[in-house]
Write a structure and sequence with these properties.
With 303 residues, this protein is an alpha+beta fold. Helices cover 32% and strands 29% of the residues. The strands form two sheets. Strands 2, 3, 4, 5, 6, 7 and 8 form a seven-stranded antiparallel β-sheet that branches. Strand 5 and strand 6 (151-152) form a beta hairpin.
């Protein structure tokens, strides 16, 4: 074979090799570009801060707003309440049930939510509509929030089951219930989980080394229950409940991405204030229901 032919073969071989290497290089570049596009700034920042968000949902489907109002206890409800043995019930303004246990129910420190519900279930109506939130030791109450379509409606006075604890015993409860709950016609695109977590970081609520241990969607209303008209319609927005390190809980509006300022102690105090305002004092009860043989002031005046 002549040298010229050999040289031509070498040149063609090197050209083929160069084309192969170029193809491999371009392929790697495309992979890198895809990885860069898939990695968002939020993910990069959280990774730099060593914040573990591996437990969060990958994405969240669209959810509609809901609206509802505080329900009045119907005649059927009243009959069911009166038939419950072991409680002394009173209904105020047709919307607030106050029940006292004739025999207080012992509460153990390590009782689970299921064990607590088992202890009180026989003394309730609509018990399956509430989800256990937790115990507040400062105010000695157990909180349950109403659910809708298996999503919890957080911190609303009109969808609340609050048990009173004294000396390690459950002594009674207050109950309100949301009724006529309807979904808006159109579903709303939600802030995705990673973006909601980043909002907590940007707000200074989570820091380096923290771990997101639970994340679910529920509902919350921006407006508080109107004390003068508790039966008014309220609108509830989809809301992210985010648990950090199995301890701290934060809420992020799932349509606007804003971190919500929700204080459990403040909610309990406001609720107790509303309850006290709804329950007539002993003096008012005497005036409204005079004992047999007593005359009212109006009777004396007419005489």
């Amino acid at each position: 074979m002549q040298w010229g032919q050999i040289k031509t073969l070498f040149i063609l071989s090197f050209l083929i090799l160069d084309l192969f290497l170029l193809q491999q290089f371009l392929g790697k570049q495309d992979e890198n570009l895809e990885q860069i596009e898939e990695s968002t700034p939020a993910e990069e920042q959280l990774a730099l801060e060593n914040i573990d968000y591996s437990e969060i949902p990958e994405e969240q489907e669209d959810i509609a707003f809901i609206n509802g109002s505080r329900a009045e206890f119907s005649e059927e409800d009243m009959a069911a309440i009166e038939s419950i043995e072991g409680i002394t019930p009173k209904v105020h303004n047709n919307t607030l049930l106050h029940a006292q246990f004739n025999d207080p129910i012992p509460l153990e420190d390590d009782d689970s939510s299921e064990e607590i519900m088992d202890k009180v279930d026989d003394y309730l109506i609509y018990s399956d509509q509430y989800a256990y939130w937790g115990k507040n030791d400062e105010h000695n109450v157990l909180l349950f929030f109403q659910k809708n379509n298996n999503r919890t409606i957080y911190f609303n006075e009109s969808g609340l089951l609050m048990f009173l604890v004294e000396g390690g015993n459950i002594t009674g409860y207050y109950q309100t219930r949301l009724g006529n709950i309807e979904s808006e016609n159109e579903k709303t695109e939600l802030v995705q989980p990673i973006s909601a977590v980043y909002q907590l970081y940007d707000n200074g609520d989570i820091a380096s080394g923290d771990k997101i241990t639970d994340m679910v969607v529920g509902y919350h209303s921006k407006t508080k229950t109107n004390k003068e008209d508790p039966t008014g319609i309220q609108v509830f927005a989809p809301t992210w409940k985010i648990t950090v390190n199995n301890e701290e809980i934060y809420f992020v509006n799932a349509t606007e991405g804003k971190v919500l300022d929700i204080e459990e102690d403040e909610f309990i105090l406001d609720t107790m204030e509303t309850v006290e305002a709804s329950i007539p004092s002993k003096e008012e009860e005497v005036k409204e229901n005079p004992t047999p043989g007593e005359s009212s002031e109006s009777d004396d005046t007419n005489e």
